[in-house]
Model the fold of this input.
Amino acid sequence: MKKFNMGIDLGGTKVLCALVDEKTNKIEFEVKKKTKKIKGNKNVIQKIYEAIDELLKISGVNKNQINSIGVAAAGQIDRKNGILLYSCNLECVNLNIKELLECKYNIKTTVGNDVEVSAIAEMMLGAGKDYNNMVCIFIGTGVGSSIIIDRKLVHGATGTAGELGHTVVQPDGRICSCGESGCLEAYASRTAIEARIDGMIKKGKYSIISDICDTQNISTKHLKEALDGHDSVVTECIGEAVKYLSSGIANIINFLNPELIILGGGIIQGIDEFYLKTVRSSKNKALLIASGKTEFKKAELGDYSGVIGASILEKYYNAV
Done:
């Protein structure tokens, strides 16, 4: 009888639930549900139940064929007890995902932060499988990152190690979503890029973005089209993001001296110019000997890194 691991990627806009073959680590069945308007503990867990139930129905897989459930959740996690302590996007506080899923489905459940789970996937099955020491950085709503030393995640004293997005790159700078000022993600995240473009357009600067989309819904495709058309507003905003992001990465190279830096997220995958300029600038800013030994790679698992990482989360923790 074929066996599976279930992976769940719980984010601010969607919950992606998949059954992953335990031997090949390939996704066999998947279900996606929108969560953008779903807020609060009760509504979020109900949406997870809906996704799991639909997945079991369309796949025809029996629960006894599922070894474990892994959940990658956007927010602060109590890993030991499987609790989503806080998620601003989902407006969840102390949501005991592990207890609720184990009670309902009688399947062992493990919960991790979405960025660290994606990093586990890239280390074990993706761009980092041949490396021991690496830093994974994902550019999206924020700037998330995870540190891996000797193929083990570094959690830190309070479990929050790797918060590159909240390192200060501009003292007394822009206000960040965390409430502080001058954080990297206030300058280099996808959200920051879009906000800056919108702000410049509202101040009267022309951009092709106004012609091709709503400035509140700018996609990677739109950014690339504008860059390819030499749009001055988008070029300036992307250039600023590269400047700050590469400074943050140069600090990582000098401080941690990793073998590999993995860069992921839609803007990295979809805009080669952004990726290549970030790599080049990071190396130029870092110390020569250190930067000469640090390799860069794009994340290989794309949008599925979270769900695949979640499916092998129990395996990872059993191994370490």
Summary: The domain at 129-299 is CATH 3.30.420.40 (Nucleotidyltransferase; domain 5). The chain has two domains: 4-119+304-319, 129-299. The chain has a mean pLDDT of 94.
